[in-house]
Amino acid sequence: MPRLQMLLPVALIALAGCTAQEAPRKAELVQAQPGYTDLGGLRVHYNLLPTLAMNDAVARSYGVERQPDRALLVVALRQLAAGDELPSTGTVQASATDLSGKRQTVQLRPVQTGAYTDLIGELDAHARDQLRIELQVASATGAGNVQFKRNF
């Protein structure tokens, strides 16, 4: 019983400290931001987004089915010329690794977007995943590796 009497004041002090904290706030979703990397005279644009984040028209134009637990990787190669980005071609190999170490090879296919040809690929992406994407890029105007992360 004396031990219980000693713990009670400590517990009350600990509880009193909890009330001075900031009130809980509603979580705000942060949208994934597209990015790019320059490799010599080549600019590599990339993005990874849940397929459910695309509207129906965009999904249809890419030939992608909107599904939970699926993401779309988009890679665009552009040649840098006097401040402009011109269409470029090259090869891109892509893979994704989650926090548990599970690795997926992402098969990329070309899609036409106006005067440009972009590369897209679908992969598994579950809620609360963090995916590390690795791209191996080669073209006549630049080559190298690109890495980026996205949280779901």
Main pleated-sheet profile: 6 strands, antiparallel
Given helix and strand content, the structural type is alpha+beta
Unreliable segments of 5+ consecutive residues: none
Number of strands: 10
Order of helices and strands: HEEHEEEEEEEE
Description:
By secondary structure, the protein is an alpha+beta fold. Helix content is 16%, strand content 49%. It contains two helices and ten strands; from the N terminus they run αββαββββββββ. The chain has helices at 2-18, 56-62, and strands at residues 35-39, 42-50, 70-81, 84-87, 91-97, 103-106, 109-113, 116-124, 130-139, 142-151. Strands 1, 2, 3, 4, 7 and 8 form a six-stranded antiparallel beta sheet that branches. Strands 6-5-9-10 form a four-stranded antiparallel beta sheet, with no helix packed on it. β5 (91-97) and β6 (103-106) form a beta hairpin. The longest helix has 17 residues, at 2-18. 20% of the residues are buried.
